[in-house]
Write a structure and sequence with these properties.
Elements: H1 2-13, H2 18-27, H3 32-42, H4 47-59, H5 61-77, H6 80-95, H7 98-113, H8 121-130, H9 135-165
């Protein structure tokens, strides 16, 4: 993830400020807040600036995914070109949904909060939408998960990794 985040940072950094780079990376699936905090450390953005940028960037897509992704996927499946991709995305997300289905709220909190490959707010929102988790419950769970991920990734990016990168 570090290499992907760094590649985005270099590319975007030619056109916008490093703070905008951090914000945009935090909105991108796969990278999200984790990538944003790693890039913010690499770009030497102060942690007090990086954390709000990453949190807001990671939060912005959540309501749109929860509210509209099922309709978007339904529409896209009607187009032969996209059908396979959408079904693959749905199957991949549902393959990770066991703990969310079983524990719902706390499962979603942990899924979003523990920074492992394939987890995070984007996938958590997709799974919550596909499982028809209550919108308010999903939003609160994801915000708690983002808070947990922020603490973990701040320590890793600015603490442990920060010491190695310094």
């Amino acid at each position: 993830m570090e290499k992907l985040a760094a590649a985005f940072a270099v590319t975007l950094g030619k056109y916008v400020s490093k703070e905008v780079v951090v914000f945009i990376i935090s909105m991108i699936p796969i990278l999200e807040l984790r990538g944003g905090l790693i890039v913010s450390k690499l770009l030497q953005v102060p942690i007090t600036t990086a954390i709000p940028l990453c949190i807001i960037g990671n939060i912005i897509p959540i309501p749109f995914i929860l509210l509209f992704i099922k309709q978007i996927f339904k529409w896209m499946k009607k187009i032969k070109l996209f059908r396979g991709l959408i079904e693959k995305l749905e199957n991949r997300a549902m393959g990770k949904s066991d703990n969310i289905r079983k524990y719902e709220f706390w499962g979603l909190v942990l899924f979003v909060g523990i920074p492992l490959p394939g987890t995070g707010a984007w996938t958590g929102s997709l799974i919550a939408a596909l499982l028809d988790v209550d919108f308010k419950k999903a939003i609160i769970a994801e915000l708690l998960g983002i808070a947990i991920a922020t603490v973990i990734m701040s320590v890793l990016s600015y603490g442990l990794l920060g010491a190695l990168l310094a």
